Amino acid sequence: MRHLLWAGCSRLLPREAGLHARKQSAAAAATTPRRSPWPTALLAASGSSPGASVGLLQHPAPGHGAPCRRGSQFNVPPSAQFVARPVGVCSMMKLPVQASAEGLDAAFVGVPLDTGTSNRPGARFGPRQIRAESAMVRRYNASTGAAPFDSLQVADIGDVNVNLYNLPDSCRLIRESYQKIVASSCVPLTLGGDHTITYPILQAVAEKHGPVGLVHVDAHTDTGDRALGEKIYHGTPFRRCVEEGLLDCGRVVQIGIRGSSYDPDPYKYCWDQGFRVVLAEECWMKSLVPLMGEVRKQMGDKPVYISFDIDGLDPAYAPGTGTPEIAGLTPAQALEIIRGCKGLNIVGCDLVEVAPMYDVSGNTALLGANLLFEMLCVLPRVKTK
Fold this sequence. Notes:
385 residues
C-alpha cells in the first residue's frame, strides 16, 4: 500500500521533492517510536491491530495529543488539535470501547430499539448518530467547571443486542444487560432508542437501589395503560414502573409536558400517584433554576434516575424525533434542568427518542450528545477544575 501511495504522490510532486520526502519519512521511522492515539482496547474493538493503525495515521509527538494526559489514570477523549475528528472508531466522545462495564465508574450504552414507537420510527439509529455528533464534545465543561475525565473512569461499552421483532424479548435483553452494568457499580448513561427502554433499565436499577426518584423531561407523561391492546410501548413505561414498585412516586418530577390529548384530564393518573407535573406553559419565557432548587429538595439524598426524551425540547431545536410537540423547552432550559441535578445521588441517565432521519442537519443528535455529556458532568464524585 505504501508503495502505491508513493507512486501516486510522485506524479504530483517534482521528483526531487518526492525523494526528499521519502528520505525524511525513512529517517523519522528509524528514530521515532510508533505510538497509537487510542488505547489498545479500542483498536482491538475496532478489528484493527495497533500495528495496522500506525501505518494509517500521523501520530502526535510524545506528550502532544495522546488521548490521556501524561500520568492520568482515567480514559480521556482525544483532542481534535492532534487527532482529526473523523478519525477512529465511532464511539461516544471517541472514548475507548470496552466489552463490559467492569472497572468503570460510568459507561455510555446504546440501546438501538424503536419497536415501541407509536408514530415515526427511526430511533433505532439514534445511538449511532449521537456517537457521530459527539465528536464535537470536548473534555471539560467550561460553563460549570466540571472535569468528568479527571474524576471518573468512563468508556463506551457498545450496544445492547436487542430483538427488533419482539418487544417483550427486547425488554428482557435490556434488563439482563443492565443488571450486569449496575452490579459492577457502574452508572449507565444510555443512548436511545425509544422511551420503552427506560422500563427495563429501571427494573435493573431498582433491583439494586430500590425504588428511585425520577427527573423526567418529556413532552408526554408516558403513563398510558395500553395501545392497540399492548401494555408495553413507548407511551407506557412509567405506568409499568409504578405497577412494579420501581419508582419512589413522591420523588417523581415530569418537566415540559404538553400537547393535545385523548382524555379530558390527561394528568390525573400522574397526580394520583403523587408525581409533580410541570407543564411546558409553566416553563415558557423563564429560567428553570428556581424550579430545580425545589426539585433538589424533593429528591433529597436518595437514588435518582434522569430520563430525558429529546421531544421535551421544542421541535424548532430538535425536529429529529418521532412524536414532536410544539411549544416545548429550549436547549438553555434543558441545560438548567440537568445542571440543576448536580449534588443528587444519580444512579443512571438516559437520552431517548433521537430519530436522525428527520433532521438532516444533525442538530437533534448533537443536542443529545451534549445533554449526555452534561449528565456525565453532574454525576456524583465529578470534580471541578
